[in-house]
Amino acid sequence: SQKVFLIPQERRYVLLDNTGQDNYSTVIQLRKIGINKPQRDTVYYGILNKHDFEALNQSKILYSAPTYKQTIDSKEVFVSHFFYVKLKNSSDFNLLNEFALQNKVTIEYHSDYLPLWYVLSCINSHKNALEMANLFYESGLFEVAEPDFWQADETLSATDPLFAQQWNLQNTGQ
Q1: pLDDT surpasses 50 at 38
Q2: C-beta of residue 30 within 8 angstroms of C-beta of residue 158
Q3: Which of 53, 54, 109, 118 could be bridged to 48 by S-S, CB 3.0 to 4.6 A?
């Protein structure tokens, strides 16, 4: 199999707290998404260039990660705030929980169909999901740890300020 290398880019993927009255105006219109966190009903997310990222109110940034260009096809990818961890055996959950608490990451959920796999979120951490996946894997405590890469999609950067309210224009193919 061919190796894919990632080249860091200047743009950043960000999650922003939606509380307060900050105006994110011209940077890009950040779309609302739901997060499984009771204290935060929704957050804004988007991909920003370096100038727009630096112009943000830094206290509103919940998570930030660099974007990368793939060498295989030059497509832009970014690391979401999620990463996946596979336990060595089912009795290792307490080990995962303790390691997660030490590193300020949250265990979000796991699937009954993949009982050894867990999805973790690093919103409260000072590292991004790539760094956290490396930390978890290099600890030797877990079978696998890998970040959640997403392909950058320019539809995340809609410039229409009412884009998030145009649900009726989303063709889902039904």
Answers
A1: no
A2: no
A3: 53
pLDDT digits (tens, 9 = 90+) for 68-93: 998 888 888 889 999 999 999 999 99
120 touches 82 (CB < 8 A): yes
The average confidence (pLDDT) of the chain is 79
Q: What is the rounded CA–CA span in Å between residue 66 and residue 119?
A: 20
Q: Which residue has the higher pLDDT, 50 or 100?
A: 100
| First-to-final CA distance of the chain | 37
* pLDDT tens string 14-26: 887 766 544 444 3
How many other CB atoms are there within 10 angstroms of residue 162's CB atom? Answer: 8
Structure token pair of residue 65: 């990660």
Count of CB atoms situated within 10 Å of the CB of 130 = 21
Contact, 66 vs 6, CB < 8 A?
no
